[in-house]
TrEMBL record:
This is N-acetyltransferase domain-containing protein. Pfam families: Acetyltransf_CG. It comes from the Bacteria. Residues 11-96 form the N-acetyltransferase domain. SUPFAM superfamilies: Acyl-CoA N-acyltransferases (Nat). Signal peptide: none annotated. PROSITE patterns: GNAT_YJDJ.
Length: 105
């Protein structure tokens, strides 16, 4: 992640069911669903003002770190998150082995 995003806190917005970071009044976020032992990441998005800034990567990395610390397993339904994990296989350790695309990571 770019250094300018490191100090920006990740917010788990339970009302909107998304993990988010805010940069200059604009958001990068990942919609999620949660169960007792799993967190499903469904869709990653950045507001147009953040396109090409690296904000999407930052929110993904911060969210994966949150899931790792929580001890829950990840269900990466979001294609962006799935592709990120394929490029960074060290994150496969937090993916639930029962996830349908597990063998493709």
């Amino acid at each position: 992640m770019k250094t300018e995003f490191e100090a920006i806190p990740l917010v788990k917005n339970e009302n909107k069911k998304r993990f988010e970071i805010e940069i200059d009044g604009h958001f990068a976020f990942i919609n999620y669903g949660e169960r007792e032992h799993q967190i499903a990441l469904v869709h990653t998005e950045t507001e147009p003002e953040l396109a090409g800034t690296g904000a999407a990567v930052a929110v993904v990395e911060k969210t994966l770190e949150y899931i790792k610390k929580s001890g829950k397993k990840l269900l990466p339904f979001c294609p962006y998150v799935f592709a990120y994990i394929k490029k960074h296989p060290e994150w496969k350790a937090i993916v639930d082995e029962k996830f349908g695309g597990y063998d493709q990571l």
